[in-house]
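PROTEIN DESIGN WORKSHEET
SECTION A - STRUCTURE
LENGTH: 221
TOKENS:
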């Protein structure tokens, strides 16, 4: 058995998406004599690898503590779209050409390689990322996938500093279909293509959280 970490690292050089453009703040506190350290952190729930819930765009949407881990974990399959140009809109044709068999209840991971290339390079990571077209988002949920993960920043409207909630279309399409959106995965190149494997999307159980930081990983035989 081998565990493959699919989580993007975060730190004080990590920025949230352009709408807030907030760096992560970590403050260390110490006691003496000897060594004792404890840190506090200030960050958006959507900085780095994270899971989005429908409260992100619906007033009565679900929040982190109400979502069970079996909705973000289970058998998974990779759709390998590489190589993908920066700022490319992922289309239905792209997905149809690359997708293996997807079964209802699968976790689907969309591989572009963008996080591997650009994570940590802000704002390039966000504004240059491939995005998911609304038609492609509909195609993904129509497969019956229970969770959909991207190794890029899939919402084109969110590349801007200012956008309307009505422009949050990819989140809405995936969330309103009952699926879970997972973002900023990395290292998908370490996963098999065309083979099924176990995937785990473990997220913080934040009460009232419209999103939550996550540790994504796969278990391979």
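SECTION B - SEQUENCE
RESIDUE ASSIGNMENT:
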């Amino acid at each position: 058995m081998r565990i493959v970490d699919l989580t993007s690292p975060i730190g004080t050089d990590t920025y949230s998406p352009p709408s807030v453009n907030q760096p992560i703040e970590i403050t260390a506190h110490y006691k003496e004599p000897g060594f004792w350290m404890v840190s506090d952190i200030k960050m958006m729930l959507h900085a780095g690898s994270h899971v989005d819930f429908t409260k992100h765009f619906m007033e009565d949407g679900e929040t982190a503590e109400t979502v069970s881990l079996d909705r973000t974990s289970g058998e998974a399959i990779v759709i390998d779209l590489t190589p993908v140009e920066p700022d490319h809109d992922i289309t239905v044709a792209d997905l149809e050409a690359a997708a293996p068999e997807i079964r209802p209840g699968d976790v689907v991971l969309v591989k572009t390689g963008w996080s591997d290339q650009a994570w940590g390079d802000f704002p390039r990571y966000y504004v240059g990322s491939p995005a998911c077209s609304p038609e492609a988002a509909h195609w993904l949920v129509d497969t019956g996938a229970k969770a959909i993960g991207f190794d890029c920043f899939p919402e084109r409207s969110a590349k801007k500093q200012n956008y309307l909630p009505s422009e949050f279309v990819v989140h809405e399409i995936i969330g309103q279909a009952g699926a879970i959106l997972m973002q900023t995965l990395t290292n998908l190149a370490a996963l098999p293509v065309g083979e099924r494997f176990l995937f785990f999307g473990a997220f913080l159980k934040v009460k009232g959280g419209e999103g939550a930081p996550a540790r994504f990983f796969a278990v391979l035989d």
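SECTION C - NOTES
The radius of gyration is 17 Å.
The chain has one domain: 2-8+44-220.
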